[in-house]
Amino acid sequence: MAESVFKDNVVVITGASAGIGLEIARRLAKDGAHLVLGARSADLLEQAAKEFRASGARVISVPTDVSDRDQCEALINAAIREFGRIDTLINNAGISMHARFDELHDIEAVERITAINYFGAVYCTWFALPHLKKTQATTRPEKPQQPHDAWRAPAAPQKTVAIIVAHSGQCKVKTAASVNRPSSIYVDFS
Ligand SMILES: NC(=O)c1ccc[n+]([C@@H]2O[C@H](COP(=O)([O-])OP(=O)(O)OC[C@H]3O[C@@H](n4cnc5c(N)ncnc54)[C@H](OP(=O)(O)O)[C@@H]3O)[C@@H](O)[C@H]2O)c1
Q1: CA-based, 20 to 30 A from 74: which of 63, 93, 124, 184?
Q2: How many domains does the structure of the chain reveal?
Q3: Has residue 3 been placed in a domain?
């Protein structure tokens, strides 16, 4: 079987304590990636880290609330301290809510979602981008049409990979310079 493009890739993934993020991390660990796991639940993160280490992966867990800018910076700094570089950032952490806007009792729920789903991805991208650029990422995913489409490996193995995803679809960041419209987050290295 061909070696995974993620072999020895340093991947920071938020929301890695449960659900989709945990499963992505599990798959990346199998592919030989070095993982930096972020989420608020320290115990669940460490449980995941232990599982992945047992299968030979290099993993650190960094309890992080992505709605807090300083904690996002600390997450990225921890990745650099441990691995010296970041190849991939996966902005997966998020919450969701379904309600009619005119039936909301207060606006705080919207503020909370924005803080996590939007600013969480923006903060992590902001702090990681200089490091992602240093790895001279040579590939980027196809521009995602739908949130789940963003999780795509490049067609051919490349030196580094940068995938920046915000599936709850809050914004688009292009080389971290502009936040244009509600869509998916991705960073274009061209
Ligand atoms: N499942 C779906 O069908 C679906 C569809 C569209 C979009 N999405 C989006 O995909 C992402 C993952 O979904 P999921 O179904 O896997 O959700 P999930 O099972 O609820 O997992 C969410 C993850 O995000 C983390 N998280 C939540 N708030 C956080 C915060 N403030 N700081 C850091 N981490 C935080 C949670 O960990 P802690 O609680 O430990 O912090 C958990 O690891 C979410 O952004 C969700 O909105 C999911």
Answers
A1: 184
A2: 1
A3: no
Task: Residue 65: give its domain's CATH number.
Answer: 3.40.50.720
The answer to the question of residue 52 being in a domain is yes
Residue 134: which domain range? Answer: 10-188
Record the tokens describing residue 95, joined without a space. 């919450």
Residue of 37, 28, 25 lying closest to 62 (CA atoms): 37
Q: Which atom of ligand 1 is nearest to the CA of 96?
A: 47
For residue range 43-85, list pLDDT tens digits in order.
999 999 999 999 999 999 999 999 999 999 999 999 999 999 9
Rounded CA separation 168/122 (Å) = 13
Atom of ligand 1 nearest to the CA of 65: 32
CA of 136 to the centre of ligand 1 (A): 29
Give the pocket of ligand 1 (CB within 6 Å).
14-15, 17-21, 39-41, 44, 64-67, 92-96, 116, 120, 147, 167-168
Say how many Å lie between the CA of residue 15 and the centre of ligand 1. Answer: 6
How many whole angstroms from 8 Cα to the centroid of ligand 1?
25
- The amino acid that residue 188 corresponds to is D
Residue 4 lies in a domain: no
Instruction: Tell me how far apart the alpha carbons of residues 81 and 60 are, in angstroms, rounded to a whole number.
Output: 11
